[in-house]
Amino acid sequence: MSEVKGSMVGTAGWFALILLVVSLTALAPIPSNSQALTAEHGIITVPQLDGNRRFSLEGDWLLKQPGEEEHLQKVPSVAWKQGSGTYSLTLLWEGGPTQFEFFTNNVGTSYELWLNESLVGSSGRYSPVAEQSRPSAKPLIHEFVLLPGSNVLQVKISNFVHPRAGLWEKVYIAPKPLATYSYQRRAAVDLFMFGQLFLFALLQLSLAVFSTKKSSHVWFALGTLLVALGNIMRNNIAIYTLLPNLDYLLFKRAQIITYYLASGFFVYAFHKRFPSTTVILLARIFFWGCITMTVVSLFLPYEVIYPLAIGFFPIMFLFLMYRVWVQLGTYRSSLLHRSKVSAILQIIADILLAYGMSHDFVGILLARYDVQMIPYMTYLYVALYTVVLARDYILADKQTEEAKNQIILTAAHQKQQLANDLHDGVAQMLHALDFMTEGLLQSNHIDMKILQTIRNTSKDATKQLKHVIDDLNPIRFGSTSLESALHTMADRMQTSYGIETLCSTKGESLNFDVLLTQNLYYVYSEAVKNALSHAKPTYVSMVLKVTDVAILGSIENDGVDGATSITINQGHGVSIMRYRIELLGGIFDIARKNSHTLIVKFQIPRRKRDD
Fold first, then answer.
1. Could you give the CA distance from residue 349 to residue 315 in angstroms, rounded to a whole number?
2. Do 355 and 417 belong to one domain?
3. Has this prediction a pTM greater than 0.85?
4. How do residues 294-307 score in pLDDT, each as one tens digit?
């Protein structure tokens, strides 16, 4: 028990460290490649150009809103909820006439850019009247000439849709064409990731055609396609390079909906791998919650669905960190190299996406609108999980061939073992019966002692023959269930080998189909035989638990030498057991419970129509 607690404490320690690192990195802002120029009382001195640099215009700008006095307002920051206003900033320039570019990613607002009382450009349709204002999210770069001396830059903003208004994202200027090149490079990266994610989705759909775990590949592929679409609607909003006339409200609804659906699909793709039936049910509730929020987002006003979408971040974060906890436990306890590698990749993927979620959530709460990390972290998340799923498929295919070969060899071995059992057991007893019967016939009188011996030998022969029949056909439908067959196996082992053997079956009592029943029985049988052949147990425990969502099983024994290094190899029937479980769409693992106890465990999703 102390070893189990020690293992839990170790896992909890690693989990706490990961949680701390994710939290601290989420609080840290992303370094910018631009030089910050801080305005004081609405005035900034633009330095002489000594290279290709972008400048972010921060600090105190002058803000004039209808019905209010002109006052200082920090940029970037949320200045008001809805309405209009005019930002002013005086740029002091000591150089000659120089072409500059202006850029801001102020999604949700419409604005006009003025320099020295001349209109430079606009985004959307600016108007202080709500009915005439039209918001835009399309990234635009405006050109202007900075003259020697004072230059008054004005940004007239109107917003009647987004719950945040004003210059709440960074404002940049740069010598022409640096801003254009910078945006094009970033948009090209977004489009590259879009194409990569699309290919990842096609790969998963291709694997689904041949895999026994089709649903995981299909749901993951659908989630990947939605992430690909959602990612080009963030940061550089590269979707406008594909759809330049996309309506703003349609764009914002699509942005929210894609992430609702992608999150739901990703959780649903792996929900059957959760070790707890309660969490499996919660994952299903989460999935349907995402579907519900998607439908709601189609009809409710944007100012309502926006805060709901923000509240979604911590929920997804909790699911991701729970998966980190589960995979940490798998990595620390599993004895299968394949399971350890898969666990490491999944831990890294979940940590990265959890970081992206927490970073962007903190950024929204603190009104710190730097680079959004979700697009990049979802790309890495999908890439790593694609490796996990593809690797699992390749290894499963390889091990399927190995398992088939071992099944053929095992069948031959069992035939030989059956022949030996019949010869050494039943045949010898029948020969003894024949000898004793012949003696009675020759003596021509009844000997009660010999008759009793004949009877006992006959019973032993019948019992041994029944054992042979049970080995050949342990479950005879109509007379024997899986539950009774497992209890019979436990009784035989305790009687034959003197090892305490416990058998526990919990949950619903079901008559499974032939494929499921036979495969489950032989997994238990193979695990018990391994315990006898490769360990020296004092007890063996078999557990079968059936719930509404999963069939869970385990076989543990305490015969492992704590000082021995355990090597799980194909000769121990591991590949056959794994093959049988994965044939049923389940997951299989072998782990240490403590230094002396080994546990074989599996989990199979329920398919009630053909159970």
1. 17
2. no
3. no
4. 999 998 888 888 88
